[in-house]
Structure formats: C-alpha cells, structure tokens
C-alpha cells in the first residue's frame, strides 16, 4: 500500500467519538449535536421535485465535463454573485461531487512531486482534507496559524521566503472553518502577487460564502478580487463552491471548481481517469438550486436568528463573538477544550468539537487550544436549548 497513507491522522470526529465514549450523558436530556457542520434545515422542495422527475436519467452515463446547461448556470451564478464580467462555462467551470472530493483531487493534479520538497500551504485550523490531500500528492503540508490578534486569518507577511519558494499550492478558506473569518481585497491582492512571484496556485475554498449575517456585506471571493484587479483570466486562481451549505443539500454531493482555464484543462483530463462524473439527475437538480436565491435568503435569515439568540445567552459567560460568516462559533473555553467538550457531554448531553482537533501544533502553538467549535446547524429551538445548557455548565465550573 501507499506508504503515505500512514501519515493520515484520525478524522476529528473519530477523536470526538473516543472522547465521548469515556463518559455517559444523562438519560433525561435529549442529545443536541453542535459538533458536525451538517446543515439541518430542510432541503428545498423544488430541488427534490427535480430529482424525482429526472430520476430515470440514471439510465444515462454522465460526462465528466458536465451538462452544458449546468456549466452555464454556474457561470451565470458566479457572474451575478461576484460581479464578474464573464466566466466561460466551457473552459472555466467544472462540476464536482462536492468540494471535499474536488479539493482532494485537484491537489493530486496540481502538485509536481518532482520538485524539491513541494509544499501545500494552508490555514491552521483547517479542513483536514487539505492535509490528507497534501500527503497523498507527495507534498508536505505547511500550516499558517490563524490567531485572534490577526483577525483569525494567517499572517502572510510572516511567512519565510523559503516557504513560498517551495509552495506549489496555497489553500485559503473564506469564510473560514471554524473561525468564520473572511479575506478582503487587500488580502487577495497580496496573495495573487505572491502566486505570481513564486509561481504557485492559489485555491480558495468558499463553500460558506452564502451564509452571513443578513445586514452584512456578502463575503468577497477570489474571482471577484481577480476581476477588481483586472485579472479576468483568473490566472493561477481557482475557487471551490458547493450546494451543501448554501442550499442545505449535503447529500446531493454537488459543487464546482472554477477559475484559470489553463489549470482546469489538465484537471479535467485527470478527472476523466478519476471516474467522478456527476450523475445526470444530480446535475439537473443542481441547475434548479443554483438558479434560485429565495431559499438561500431564507436560509440566511434562520442562521441570523440563531446567532442572535445564542450569543445573547452565551456572551455573559463565555468569550464568544459573532463571526463574519459561516454557521460556526469559535469561543474560548475557561478550561482545557477536551475536558470542556467531554464534561459538557457528560453533564448536559450537548456535543461540541474541541478546537485542537481541527488544528496542528506548530512551534509549540495549537490555535485550537482552549477553544471549541459550535456549529449552529440544528433548529433554532434546539440551538437555544443547547446554549442554555452550555451556560449552565459554564456557570457550574
């Protein structure tokens, strides 16, 4: 077997299951899970209707490139959402089976393992696929800490030049998981200039881009920054988007990669061998979802309501702040984060994720120490109940 498989660490939820297995929660309280970022709002009924209507399309082989009408729908959505002059649906868009699959696959195609000690650079904390994809591509992961003093974004100015020389692929996640932080135009401009100077690919994971407080400005995306900088070919830049969070369709496994046509052409070749074409009925349902914004606005309204209610309850007892976007809270804990998560489960039957499970210790610092990630994905009533139990637990410490 590939020896690099031995470098893969257990997924955060494997660690969480072991931690919870050491205690027993109270029988008189219903379990509330705030640990997994799986949307629990209802899927749009019109998307389900399309799936039912088009189910007979399982009789057809899908193409890796995708239906022209889906690619055009995605290109049009990108143009509307990010004020782009034009996106070529033929050369600058590829449908994918969710961002997780595409991020992993793109890394395999993007890394030149013949280069001296190639690096895949990513934020820390991070989506664990970045790390696993790096190892299995023949590269090493390199983590940039996302600390509160820098707005929970990496301090790109502090990265040594030697790291940029070895970097082949830089992942950013905006809005961030788990911090909810976003990158601004000046951040993207700096990264694009670095990509040009050191010849690496800039990949932006933007699957939370449509979840933000209703009154706030929509988060900027990498392609939007490219357009503002007059870079309409999106050179060296790709973005990943998904219907999982935007449309409450995590099981549909539908998203896309878009950007530099010179990067997507060889990636499409890779995918024809990889065997990951999106089923036709899924593509048709995806067209329906990308073409509708009403359900997205309703989704945002529900998250805004939950954030407001939960923060009102928790702010007096925890150091917790409204994130810029996404559906996460990233509060500090008054005790060790693993102990906090375990005892909260044992006493209140509420599950949260220790922040250290989403991070790596580099130079003695783990950005997730004494923090937990709370995913406000349950119903509003459940989130309020969970917040009350968390407050009661904190007050008992």
UniProtKB/TrEMBL annotation:
The keyword Transferase applies. SUPFAM superfamilies: PLP-dependent transferases. Keywords: Aminotransferase, Transferase. Residues 32-390 form the Aminotransferase class I/classII large domain. Its cofactor is pyridoxal 5'-phosphate. Pfam families: Aminotran_1_2 (PF00155). The keyword Transferase applies. PANTHER family: AMINO ACID AMINOTRANSFERASE (PTHR42832), L-GLUTAMINE--4-(METHYLSULFANYL)-2-OXOBUTANOATE AMINOTRANSFERASE (PTHR42832:SF3). This is Succinyldiaminopimelate transaminase. It comes from Thalassolituus maritimus.
């Amino acid at each position: 077997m590939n020896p690099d498989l031995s470098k893969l660490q257990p997924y955060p939820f494997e660690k969480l299951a072991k931690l919870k297995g050491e205690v027993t929660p109270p029988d008189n309280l219903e379990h509330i899970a705030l640990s997994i970022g799986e949307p629990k709002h209802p899927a749009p009924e019109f998307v389900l209707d399309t799936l039912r209507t088009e189910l007979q399309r399982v009789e057809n082989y899908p193409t890796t490139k995708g239906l022209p009408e889906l690619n055009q729908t995605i290109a049009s959505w990108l143009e509307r959402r990010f004020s782009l002059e034009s996106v070529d649906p033929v050369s600058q868009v590829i449908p994918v089976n969710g961002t997780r699959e595409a991020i992993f696959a793109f890394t395999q195609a993007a890394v030149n393992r013949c280069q001296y000690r190639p690096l895949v650079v990513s934020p820390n904390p991070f989506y664990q696929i970045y790390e696993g994809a790096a190892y299995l591509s023949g590269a090493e992961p390199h983590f940039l800490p996302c600390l509160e003093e820098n707005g929970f974004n990496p301090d790109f100015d502090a990265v040594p030049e030697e790291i940029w020389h070895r970097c082949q692929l830089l992942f950013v996640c905006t809005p961030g998981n788990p911090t909810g932080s976003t990158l601004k135009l000046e951040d993207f401009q700096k990264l694009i200039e670095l990509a040009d100077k050191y010849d690496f690919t800039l990949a932006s994971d933007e699957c939370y881009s449509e979840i933000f407080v209703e009154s706030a400005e929509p988060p900027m995306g990498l392609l939007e920054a490219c357009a503002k900088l007059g870079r309409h070919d999106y050179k060296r830049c790709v973005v990943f988007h998904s219907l999982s969070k935007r449309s409450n369709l995590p099981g549909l496994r539908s998203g896309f990669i878009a950007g530099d046509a010179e990067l997507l052409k060889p990636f499409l070749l890779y995918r024809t061998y990889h065997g990951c074409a999106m089923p036709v009925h899924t593509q048709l349902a995806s067209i329906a979802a990308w073409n509708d914004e009403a359900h997205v606005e309703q989704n945002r309204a529900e998250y805004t309501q939950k954030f407001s209610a939960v923060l009102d309850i928790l702010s007096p007892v925890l150091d917790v702040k409204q994130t810029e976007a996404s559906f996460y809270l990233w509060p500090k804990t008054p005790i060790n984060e693993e102990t906090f998560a375990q005892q909260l489960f044992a006493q209140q039957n509420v599950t949260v994720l220790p922040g250290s499970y989403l991070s790596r210790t580099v130079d003695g610092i783990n950005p997730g120490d004494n923090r937990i990630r709370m995913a406000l994905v349950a119903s509003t009533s459940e989130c309020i109940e969970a917040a009350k139990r968390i407050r009661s637990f904190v007050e008992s410490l």
